[in-house]
Each structure stands twice: as C-alpha cells, then as structure tokens.
Design brief:
Helix content is about 30%, strand content about 35%. It is an alpha+beta fold. The chain has one domain: Jelly Rolls (Sandwich). The strands form two sheets. Strands 1-8-3-6 form a four-stranded antiparallel sheet. It has a four-stranded antiparallel sheet with strand order 2-7-4-5, with no helix packed on it. It is globular.
C-alpha cells in the first residue's frame, strides 16, 4: 500500500493501544476490520507459518477480502504498541470508491 492508501485508512480508523501478549485477531472468527501497526510488533500465527510484523504492516485484510469473511490466522502482540483499527464498513466503502484499492490491499499481505 502507498502513502495515500495509508492516509485514507488513517482518516477512517481509530488508534488502539495493545499490550504484549494480547490477542488482536483469533483464527476462525469473523473478520470485522483490519489493523495497521503504528508502533510495536505483532506475530501472525497461520497454518503456513509464523511471521513477525512491525510498523506499517497491515493485518486482518484477508478476511475482509475473502468470500467467507473468516479469520485465517491468529495475531498477537509481541510488545506493547499501537494499531490503527479500521472497521469492515469503512474498508468496503474505500474498495467501492476505488476498486484498485482492494487490489493494493490484497497485495499488502
């Protein structure tokens, strides 16, 4: 995603603080939005493996773009930090306004 996309998300999102060990996304649950890491580090635990993410990373987008809307991974905090939380309705609106946004979002994972 480019800087314009991140600004769009920032305009419709809310900052949320998290603490080390906190689970932000649980696998198998419905996707209600996505998170952009502002500060801190997260770990994504998916069937295909584990990866660490830091500032600028987007998580939770796959459930918003999939047909069933379910979470495919567990995401928990490795450190304290802050994420930008963006609700599904806002993502749907951004994708409807700019279909290329959905493509860039899909490539962000």
């Amino acid at each position: 995603m480019d800087e314009d996309d991140l600004r769009r998300l920032e305009a419709v999102g809310s900052e949320l603080a998290f603490t080390a060990g906190q689970v932000l996304i649980e696998r198998g649950k419905p996707g209600t939005g996505l998170f952009v890491v502002v500060d801190g580090n997260l770990v994504v635990e998916a069937p295909e493996g584990t990866r660490e993410l830091g500032p600028g990373a987007v998580v939770g987008e796959q459930a918003l773009l999939s047909s069933d809307g379910m979470r495919t991974a567990r995401v928990r905090a490795l450190t304290d930090g802050v994420v930008l939380a963006v609700e599904r309705a806002e993502i749907d609106r951004l994708c409807a306004d700019d279909p290329a946004f959905a493509e860039r979002l899909a490539r962000s994972s």
